[in-house]
Amino acid sequence: MMNDILANALSNIINAERVGKEFCIVKPTSKVIKKVLDILHENHYIGEIKYIENNKGGIYKINLIGKINNVGVVKPKFSVKSGGFEKFEKRFLPAQDFGLLVVSTSQGIMTHYQAKEKKIGGKLLAFCY
Are 51 and 33 in contact (CB under 8 A)? Predict the structure, then answer.
């Protein structure tokens, strides 16, 4: 039984990346997983994302491009105010302006750079570098 499907999806991605596979299959799917994958694709950490319907909830086929050093979820999901991202950047990222944090805000799921720009806080979901 899976408790956290986002953690399972990101774990599948990093395991396939470390082995050197060209693509990764992620199942089960959700809107949160889709948005996190879109953010990773927009920031050039993963390649093309293809959704395949299989009458069991669907799967994502993700092309890997070898740019991920580490990716994972943030547990517990810490609440962050608009000016408090530095503490978590130091905790989860290896250097300043290297990598990104994925944040769930009142305006949707976005990177911590976008949240800083809009001056809004939220809950930390994941990190990637």
Answer: no
